[in-house]
Task: structure prediction
Amino acid sequence: MAGSESSSKMRTKMAFIALLFALFSTGSCSSQVPLVMWSSEGYTLPQLVSPAAGHIISHVQLMAYLNSALGSAPHNMLLFLQDKMSKDDFTRYGGVFGNKQDSVFPNLEVNILLRSSSSPLVLPALSWLGASAVPSLLQEKLGVSPLSVDPDTLEHLRFNASENTLLVINLPYCSSAYLSCQDVLRNNDEVIGKVLSIMKAQSVPYTAIYTGLKPSRVIEEPSVIVQSSMSRSLLQAVVDEVKPPLMFNSTRGPCIMLWAQNLNVSFSDKEWIDLGPSTFASGGSVSTSGSFCNETNSQLVLDYGSSVSPYNPFRLIFSMSQRRYPVSARNWFTLDTVELVFNTLTATYNGSHRIYAPAEYSFHCQNVNNFRNALLVPRAQNATQWRILFTDFQIQGFSILNGTTDFSYASDCAGFFTPGIWMGLITSLLMLLILTYGLHMIMQLRSMDRFDDPKGPSISVPQSE
Result:
């Protein structure tokens, strides 16, 4: 029995360390707070793809997740709202550096990781605006007014499982001159433990959120005025406006995104035709009719009609698919083909061997072409008549969040062993060979083993030796 309790405590500690490591592993950015969300036993939160390192969750993304997590069933929501909070508070006072006995979050650790029926949601970097809007988001979603309570008044409340309830428990931060931050956070953890114990004693299912109103530590970014005063710039310089990516929306929401600085095509070494202005500029002549997407396949059809003279009608088609690869234990998507449909002919190029990325990522490459270090390989003879050059190309065909206007983390086409790396490796190997040869020659040196005795006869060394 003692061994079972010991192993359970060990699993709890390891899980909590993993949770705190998730908070600690993201890059430092300004104006952000962490958010932890968990549920009681018997209720499962939907899974969310872990955000990439340094990614800040926006107000829109948080609302999209709350819509999927809360659904239409009634909920008893507990919002533990701390005056200030940063992930540094967890890494500094959570005992993640071996001093587990000094952790100030024992109740948070036990209630989230030992009693919860599902994995908690951990958002290490939530935008400041998103955190301050959490009460209003919950109020809008649940359709009820928030009720500020404390543990003493909570004992006398009776909950109705068929109605929504939003309870807000306000927690202080290190503003007292008599208590240190460690003591304040420990007291807050005791309040959280007491509230959850009351909810468990009343057998009330709940969903809890622990976050802050604003960050406790803000890294200020250099202002534009300071940067401009410390650097030179050309007068009358015109900054090119970055056009938004092209997005195709299905009935389920956005599912395909495409962007490029230039989409250049040329037939039989004639003048280049840039399709970029017609594709990404507001009021462009391109149409996405014929595009579709589902769980395994996506196809983006760019129909330019008669705007690409004399190759009318002209269409550019990107076909993508995703599947699971057991070796990497994850889903990957590939750009299977790129098709140029001109007049009544079709030129098809295979890109699946070089253009691929994890399913939840986007693919980016500075230069995608079919004639030099080609990523697009012609499939038929007529495809060799065309030259394709996509500059600063980025595409994503799967795992696009609702409400987002940005690509996911990009998997770049740049190879690991660049020419510079190869030069460094070969030069290092050459220097190592020279050093090895020199050491070998030094080890072959032998000292004299015969010496003249001034009082005796001279040594006669035969020439044969």
Summary: The CA atoms of residues 4 and 127 lie 41 Å apart. Residues 20-29, 220-231 have pLDDT under 50 and may be disordered. The longest helix spans residues 419-443. The chain is about 25% helix and 30% strand.
